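=== Structure Prediction Worksheet ===
Name of assembly: unnamed complex
Input type: mixed (protein and possibly other molecules)
Chain count: two
Listed entries:
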Amino acid sequence: VETAAGSGRRVAIQGERGSFSHSAAQRALGPELEVVCEPSFDALFATVSEGRAERGLVPIENSLTGSLHENYDRLRASGLAIVGETHLRVRQCLIAAPGASLAGLRRVASHPVALAQCRSFFAAHPGIEPVVAYDTAGSVRELMRTRDVAAGAIAARLAAELYGAAVLREGLEDDPENYTRFLVLAREAVPTPGADKTTLLLRLPHVPGSLHRALGAFAERGVDLAKIESRPLRGRPGEYVFYLDVLGDPAGAVGAALAELRARCDELRVLGSYRSGPRSQAGRAGS
Amino acid sequence: VETAAGSGRRVAIQGERGSFSHSAAQRALGPELEVVCEPSFDALFATVSEGRAERGLVPIENSLTGSLHENYDRLRASGLAIVGETHLRVRQCLIAAPGASLAGLRRVASHPVALAQCRSFFAAHPGIEPVVAYDTAGSVRELMRTRDVAAGAIAARLAAELYGAAVLREGLEDDPENYTRFLVLAREAVPTPGADKTTLLLRLPHVPGSLHRALGAFAERGVDLAKIESRPLRGRPGEYVFYLDVLGDPAGAVGAALAELRARCDELRVLGSYRSGPRSQAGRAGS
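=== Predicted Assembly ===
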């Protein structure tokens, strides 16, 4: 979505080169970016906040496992702005050193979450032992170091491309409905022509009906919700924040709804207005 | 919550004896249960559906990582009923063979999620190498097999108790606000005296304002929401279901709201009414 403008920019990801986060960064910002690999999400947020990278890419929800609440918390605490999103299909590849073949593999290494997503592959190949590793791309780097033709890895296609390994099979995952939504973060909000999605954080008065009244500001204007989620406030038992994605022109009905909503909330923060990624444009939840 | 009645019952969990799921089962149903270990959540749901266990314990959300959407999907597909819940604090323990000491440890094994939750421990002990393993309790079983006093594991206290290992340190996790909510499932709903929480699934007409109108049925009666979450419907882009937890007497205001709500929904399913677990009783999200 930011493809043209993304060339050569420094983009922070959590994880290694060749990871699914790296694939998502290329999808969102074009292939010419300079990736900054961080060992943790905290380090990623700090790198963008302190200007050592112009953008950060963070996973925020997966179609199978749900939202990553910790990254919502970090968004709230950091003050970074959402400036884009992208949906990446998680497509697990069987990767090996050049010259290796499926018949010769004895061990296949990957992160346990990736291994767990490929149960039917291992059930169909009882001669191949699954081996746990720290991450997907790191397993590919390791097999290219040893060049052991009995060793495979499960990772994104990008990892094979970066390390010069071969893709023996693609789509190893049991469930093809496996998508991860990534947010593109920046230190400050940027005006985005064609922005059609706004992510909000609401904290409401602690009385029955407060959410119903708040949603009325959108319903009265025909504004659609694409997502709603309650999240207990850390360290304040019984208090919640709500994360909402609303659809429409931020300068139009959405803006008018927000102006009205401000009076009904203890806290209202616009985390960003941006163009919705290809896959989510079809997604509407009603309001 | 079901403690007295839980004695001797067969309870299915995903994972091994000594896992956090096993700890949660004991917390919800008492220590005298017979645990049935299943390799996957699909197997767990099948075991309860087919009557090979009377109860199943499944994690449904974690305070740091959010809801486990796959288990909501399985609940919807299986027809099992929620008959209770419990909140387990995830307290990571450093475990070793009897006679081992922290100073002598060279390697500590666990599931990568557990290792990632204990970053500050490894930062403070650079002489100890973190080693990835399939699961937490399995790492304890393995170190008791070898009795290697240089090897440790990170797991629940229960794993140390079951395998006769020693707890060298408790509370290794970086973030003490780490709770997992587990649901107690049964083949059929059971009338629960004192039930004060009801979990619902709603599918709404795909028009703006439909969620606002649906929540009106609760707001008008002063019924509080404890949780709301939208979830895209698999294989039907643009359609959503909502999962709600509402508080109050299922035979009182909640029941009246549901009777009215039925007419406003494409689908309304009560997944269960049950007594809220100790930690959630304080939690209200407004409605």
